[in-house]
Design brief:
By secondary structure, the chain is α/β, with parallel strands linked by helices. It has 14 helices and 20 strands. Belongs to the peptidase M18 family.
Length: 583
């Protein structure tokens, strides 16, 4: 059914998804039996050969489908125009109601429209593997093509295309190529990190029972297991390595338990020992996951096998979640504990978001939604004479693992994932260009024309500790993006890059804030310096403010995810224009 036909129907005349237009192929003309078909004329042969050489132009999902992907499965209320513009399989009758439309605020970049989708993302994707999987689903729905790092990209990339690639299932690069792109043009990049402080299971997570409790062997990732982790409802999730005994194939599968299985209990103050002291994280911050069974616990698997080193009841739980009956199929896993309390909106006027893992899923989520929305608005304008209407750059979002522990692993920012992705993309696009040959010249030109926004959360001003902030460098919630500076090189912002981001703010109607740490405080780092120095690109650090950074549960503004989306989209859409204003 066409969109025009769908729009003409009211609720009482709604047609089912099964009522589709006839798409049967036209009849094939055949020769009578025993006769030889006449030869195809030479002119027709030439025309057919030419048609073989012409690539079919790829069509991309409409804007409404991309907006739908941002809301994920939480679409409940749509206005009639938004409803009828969805694909038939996306329509649910109950979506049309008298309540406010959920898609219109996204299309209009109203910050309040992004609050609920961000909260849903945080709640539904507690581990880095779930977050990357979610992003992959969004990108695929928006028409992005997944690239394999093992393949040759020479014939896979073209101007106007949309692509993404992952590494270790915990880092992701997504990018679009402008329809007016020519080799040597720049890359507008936003880079952030998806990892967050957590407690990971040790390779041998089974511990001897103490005082009748079953405990779990975990190790802190970055600064986890501090006092904010005590007395929290903790669940478990991550990825499991599974080997199929029939096919002999090995795969990874995601798992997430939807009820709390662990807790790090505090010691009552009556004993005279508070939880805010220097507790030993190895012996005093051990999660309890059950009570010792009177029947005892039988060891699962063969001696020395992976499952034999894990708590038997945990193995059975994970296997049941994956519907695995043969425990020997589980040959390894990367599991972590996470706070199960959902992200929620709070405050008297619902002006806050209270959630876990805000650092830095906040900037990462906002940047990727910005790329999706930028792709939805992108239009081909080949040979356009107007610089404002040209779209000749690569727009890229790079999301990394391991930032909280130094970015030194291959999926971290100090690895080669971002520069090698750019180099391979430029090489592939050169192979399809008759006027450019890939080499150090075109690659150096690409980096010289590029810009990196290092996007990480920053510190919002804390009303109870005002003396720890500089008076004019104290970002507020719900007030827009903050440009961060550091005179010791922990941030990449300088006078030029600061001016560039302020210009982006002008174009999207946002006033930027500024943050710098006091001289008597310690500044944190970002992925910016490592990436900027590796590629030699101009760069600035900018992020979204939050309270309680590195706590198991933090606070940001309810409008801040949407303000981030609007600013990052403004950067991607206007980088070419802003760069052209510099002489």
């Amino acid at each position: 059914m066409s969109l025009r036909a769908a729009a003409a129907l009211d609720c009482r005349g709604f047609q089912s998804a099964g009522a589709v237009e006839n798409t049967a192929p036209p009849p094939v003309l055949s020769c009578p039996p025993g006769t030889i078909p006449p030869p195809v004329p030479q002119v027709a042969c030439n025309r057919l050969e030419k048609e073989k050489d012409v690539k079919e132009e790829k069509t991309y999902p409409p804007e409404q489908t991309i907006l739908h992907s941002i809301l994920s499965s939480q679409v409940r209320h749509l206005c009639s125009p938004c409803y009828t513009s969805l694909q038939p399989h996306e329509r649910i009758y109950s979506m049309v109601s008298g309540r406010a439309c959920q898609l219109c605020p996204l299309r209009d970049l109203r910050p309040d429209g992004f609050t609920e989708p961000f909260c849903d993302f945080l709640t539904n994707n507690p581990t880095i593997f779930h977050a990357v999987s979610h992003f992959k689903g969004q990108l695929s729905k928006a028409g992005f093509t997944e690239l394999s790092t093992r393949d040759n990209w020479a014939d896979k990339l073209e101007p106007g295309g949309r692509y993404f690639v992952t590494r270790n299932s915990s880092s992701l690069m997504a990018f679009t190529v402008g329809p007016d792109y020519v080799p040597g043009n720049g890359v507008a990049m936003i880079a952030g990190h998806i990892d967050a402080l957590t407690a990971k299971l040790k390779p041998h997570s089974e511990k001897p029972n103490r005082a009748g409790y079953v405990e779990l062997g975990v190790a802190q990732y970055a600064g986890a297991l501090d006092s904010t982790w005590w007395d929290r409802d903790l669940s478990i999730g991550g990825r499991v390595v599974v080997r199929d005994p029939e096919t002999k194939k090995t795969t990874t599968r995601l798992v997430k338990v939807d009820w709390p299985i662990a807790r790090v209990p505090t010691l009552a103050p009556h004993f005279g020992i508070g939880i805010l002291g220097n507790n030993n994280k190895e012996t005093e911050a051990v999660p309890i996951v059950g009570l010792e069974s009177a029947e005892g616990e039988e060891t699962l698997g063969q001696s020395g096998s992976f499952v034999s080193k894990q708590p038997p009841r945990l193995v059975k739980l994970i296997a049941s979640q994956l519907r695995i009956t043969d425990f020997s199929q589980i040959i390894n896993w990367e599991l972590e504990l996470f706070d199960l309390q959902p992200a929620t909106v709070g405050g008297m006027d619902k002006e806050f978001i209270f959630a876990g893992r805000i650092d830095d899923k906040l900037c990462s989520w906002a940047a990727l939604q910005a790329l999706l929305l930028s792709a939805a608005k992108s239009k081909s304008t080949p040979n356009s004479s107007s610089s404002d209407s040209k779209d000749g750059v690569i727009k890229m979002v790079a999301l990394f693992d391991d930032e909280e522990i130094g970015s030194l692993l291959r999926q971290g920012a100090r690895g080669n994932f971002l520069p090698i992705t750019i180099e391979r993309a430029v090489e592939a696009l050169c192979s399809g260009s008759s006027s450019s040959t890939y080499g150090p010249g075109v690659l150096g030109q690409t980096y010289a024309n590029s810009f990196l926004v290092s996007a990480d959360v920053t510190h919002a001003v804390h009303p109870n500790f005002l003396s720890h902030y500089l008076e004019d460098h104290a970002p507020k919630l719900n007030a827009g993006i903050t440009i961060c500076a550091d005179s010791n090189g922990n941030m990449t912002t300088d006078a030029v890059s600061n001016s560039i981001l302020r210009r982006v703010g002008e174009l999207v109607g946002q006033t930027t804030q500024v943050f710098q740490i006091r001289n008597d405080s310690r500044s944190g780092g970002t992925v910016g310096p490592a990436l900027s120095s590796a590629m030699g690109v101009r760069s600035a650090d900018a992020g979204i403010p939050q309270l309680s950074m590195h706590s198991i549960r933090a606070t940001t503004g309810a409008l801040d995810p949407g303000l981030g989306v609007k600013f990052f989209k403004g950067f991607l859409d206007n980088w070419e224009k802003v760069d052209g204003e510099w002489s």
